[in-house]
Write a structure and sequence with these properties.
Blueprint lengths: L17 H54 L7 E2 L6 H6 L6 E6 L3 E10 L2 E10 L3 H50 L18 H5 L5 H46 L5 H28 L7 E3 L1 H14 L8 E5 L6 E3 L1 H18 L4 E6 L2 E5 L7 H6 L18 H11 L3 E6 L5 E6 L17 E6 L1
Parallel strand pairs: 6-8
Antiparallel strand pairs: 1-4, 2-3, 3-4, 5-7, 8-9, 9-11, 10-11, 10-12
Amino acid sequence: MVDASTVGPYDRRPEPGLRVRIAATIACIVIAAVVILALAVHLLVVQNRINQQRAAADNLVQVAMSIYQDQGVLTFDARLDDPSVPSELRRQLTRSGTHGTYLSGRSIRDVWAAGRVAGHILSIHSRFPTVDASVRAVDRALLIAGIATAVVASAVGALSANRLSRRLRLAARAARALATAASTPGAWPATSPGAADGSTLREAVGQGRDEVGDLADAVDAMAARLAERLQSEQRFTADVAHDLRTPLTGLNAAASLLDDSRPSQMVRDRVDALTTLVEELLEVARLDSRVETAQLEYAMIPAIVTRAVQRGIAKGEYPQDAVAVSTHDQGEPVLTDPRRLERVLSNLIRNALQHGRPPVTVEAGGSRVVVTDAGPGFTDEFLAKGPQRFQRSSANRGGGHGLGLIIAAGQTAVLGGNLQFGNAPGGGAQVVIDLPGAPPGRQPSSGSASAENAVIWD
């Protein structure tokens, strides 16, 4: 049984698309209009037939009355003083020469036509079906015309709805590309503000002067303003990092001259932390400016992972017992930049130790690397938004400036790969590095580890 509280907004049954709903609405309106029109025409034809039969009976009784008055002969099956004449019609014939008709019945109509002549009531009675062959022919013609009209109108409506739906899908695709580019260091706003491929949303939906065009213009204007703000933020980050670098160099030199007392050691530790922060800001600025290029070479990923962990332990970045490496089949060599991949791994391992709990497991195989810690895992908010500058992946995942994962994602993008952030099935945060794969003409090897609720940030 599924707990309703765990069902998210995207787990519900998908609703029909706008194209289907518009086409269905048009079809329903056309069918309703055709049915109403056909019913009205049918009733008019039936009423016209009744009126014709009634008028014919009235004319016939007048002729019969004239002949009887002149010659005393009953014609057209007329009868004198027939007791079957309806009392309502009989009461209307108050004086000589008056005549009238009376109609009764539904599917089969009874028509009485009578007149008073020479003190007698002369009457003629006839019957006819309300719906005859001519009425049924009209109904068939209306049915065929109605079906044809409904089909044509539905087809036209579907084509119009498809055009509108296609433009909206293009708008949504461009907006998603914009959001994806905005989440990747250096990917935006280096391109045009409208979409990651350099086109604006207006270009994607066409030059139509309608609501979709107005929406595209509004989104393009918003994207342009966001691009300006992001560029301003990137320039500020780069300027601050560069302006701090010079005085920080002098501060490092001064700190190195201090003695080995506890206060001096605390000063040196803070200077080292500030130096690390400035270096990270400079690296983010380089990623934003898209000047970073990978020095690609064919290498075995498990070997790079093993070397990176051993180097980090040797440099004292993390304890030896805190990180475990698991390598699968060596697979095929992958075209990558080993130095940058080691940088990404170092950031991910340090982030896992600082914000999660040891042991940190690094699994490598083929073109995939998986880093998993034993901590509380990523929050839903982090998985929805991805890494943000100066925002930690969890409020209870320790300190830091929130730049380590930003740098890891940016460096992975330089390598042509992507990061997947998720939570491991057994608990703990999990980050998957997917690299471009094997040499041309060969299929890349796939890793065995996977993340639960993974969110891909290219």
